[in-house]
Amino acid sequence: MNLEAFILGSGGMMPLPNRHLTSVLLRREGELFLFDGGEGTQVSLKRLNLRWKKISVIFVSHTHADHVTGIPGLLMLSSQVDRDDPLYIIGPPRIAEYIETSRRVLDMYINYEIVVKEITEPGIVYQGDGFHVRAFNLRHTKPCLGYVLEEDRRPGIFHPEKADALGVPRGPLWSRLQSGETVTAADGREVRPEDVLGETRSGRKFSFVTDSLAFPEIADEVHGSDFFVCEGMFERALEESAREKKHMTAEQAAYLAKAAEVKKMALIHYSPRYTDYDLKQLLKEAQNIFPGTILTRDRMVYPIEYID
């Protein structure tokens, strides 16, 4: 089952010619999940030839303009195609007000159901087939949420020699065992999945954190992530400014990644003060702490693989 992250926008505060505002799209076996929708989101969706009608849920971190101004256009765009399934929008308090006001003032034509859910307590906010999405509180100038999409554990590796030894004939019964179902062997004995499968294996974990002070509990929330997207808005020299604005530096993000033992961290939400060349300084400072750091770039695609 494929799991891919598409960086639709990597900038913070204001869009630049080659850097749209923060937005990440996750594609899991054809189903799409959008995390924030800054200005320029539609442009990257179009350039990447992604099917926006397949977006199931939009997860919003907070209601600052650089994270939501791309959403109204996306809602109107989705009315240009047939859509049977509802679109869920999940975010902090006042996201419902923002969506409703945008629809009313812009006189939007919407031909599908929009379901808005405001999160007031951390925890699981969405569940799908084989995965769930959990929200947790960040520390910004207004209510702000981080998100983790985590897959369920997978069955262990199937050992055909064990199935043969237990008298289970090759064919549909093997598939049923691999799906977690108990079957009956040729001699009438019941054979359980655990009789022929190895230890269960982990699924994949994606985490999204932006616009927050760095604090230790973030590492607990994103621990073990295969792909951790985290803001790295400023260099170390601007740490005081970052603290005043309730943001974090690339170096602080790296300390979180190290403590959380993530597989890969991707910096995002850069201050517009940094040119593409200047971003090398952010990367250097982060990699000194956590070597598995990369810079996100608009329209970058990152496959998230099973560790085994």
TrEMBL record:
Q: Which GO terms describe its molecular function?
A: 3'-tRNA processing endoribonuclease activity; zinc ion binding
This chain belongs to which protein, by name?
Answer: Ribonuclease Z
What is its cofactor?
A: Zn(2+)
What the entry lists under InterPro entries is as follows: Metallo-B-lactamas (IPR001279), RibonucZ/Hydroxyglut_hydro (IPR036866), RNase_Z/BN (IPR013471)
What is its EC class? hydrolase
According to its UniProt record, the EC number is: 3.1.26.11
Q: What UniProt keywords apply to this chain's record, in alphabetical order?
A: Endonuclease, Hydrolase, Metal-binding, Nuclease, tRNA processing, Zinc
Catalytic residue list: D66
Function, as annotated, reads: Zinc phosphodiesterase, which displays some tRNA 3'-processing endonuclease activity. Probably involved in tRNA maturation, by removing a 3'-trailer from precursor tRNA.
Instruction: Note whether tRNA processing occurs among the keywords.
Output: yes
Q: How does it assemble?
A: Homodimer.
Q: Which family does it belong to?
A: Belongs to the RNase Z family.
Q: Record's CDD domains? A: RNaseZ_ZiPD-like_MBL-fold
**Record Pfam families:** Anti-Pycsar_Apyc1, Lactamase_B_2
Instruction: Report whether Transcription regulation shows up as a keyword of the record.
Output: no
Where does this protein come from, organism-wise? Treponema primitia (strain ATCC BAA-887 / DSM 12427 / ZAS-2)
For this chain's record, the cofactor binding note is: Binds 2 Zn(2+) ions.
| Binding residues for Zn(2+) 2 | D66, H67, D211, H269
Ranges for the Metallo-beta-lactamase domain?
20-201
Provide the residue positions that the database annotates as binding Zn(2+) 1: H62, H64, H140, D211
Q: What is the lineage of its organism?
A: Bacteria, Pseudomonadati, Spirochaetota, Spirochaetia, Spirochaetales
